[in-house]
Design brief:
It contains no helices and 11 strands. With about 110 residues, the chain is mostly beta strands. Strand 7 and strand 8 form a beta hairpin.
């Protein structure tokens, strides 16, 4: 099982960025996929998740600004982030659970440029 996030980087406040998480080693299309984030000194928090059928949930802090999507043909889940705010810079992780086991990617960093 492997989750590989990409797309993080430097961005200005108010800007946009799209994160990707490429999955392998499991039946991606049958599982709910999630994005979490963790900022320095803060707990890891759920940002958004998407069911196999495409139902989405978002943290209140990102509703209307972030969009989670998935491409089952590419085994990839995305997080489109728009109108980025000061609370958004963090390490963003891809995540899923299967049979009671949790699987995390290594994370991709979002940082604001000065």
């Amino acid at each position: 099982v492997q989750l590989v996030e990409s797309g993080g980087g430097l961005v200005q406040p108010g800007g946009s960025l799209r994160l990707s998480c490429a999955a392998s080693g499991f039946t991606f299309s049958s599982l709910r996929m999630s994005w979490y984030r963790q900022a320095p000194g803060k707990e890891r928090e759920l940002v958004a998740d998407i069911s196999p059928g495409g139902n989405r949930n978002y943290a209140d802090s990102v509703k209307g600004r972030f969009t989670i999507s998935r491409d089952n043909a590419k085994n990839t889940v995305y997080l489109q982030m728009n109108r980025l705010k000061p609370a958004d810079p963090a390490l963003y992780y891809c995540y899923f659970t299967r049979a009671g086991n949790a699987f995390w990617g290594q994370g991709t960093q979002l940082t604001f440029s000065s």
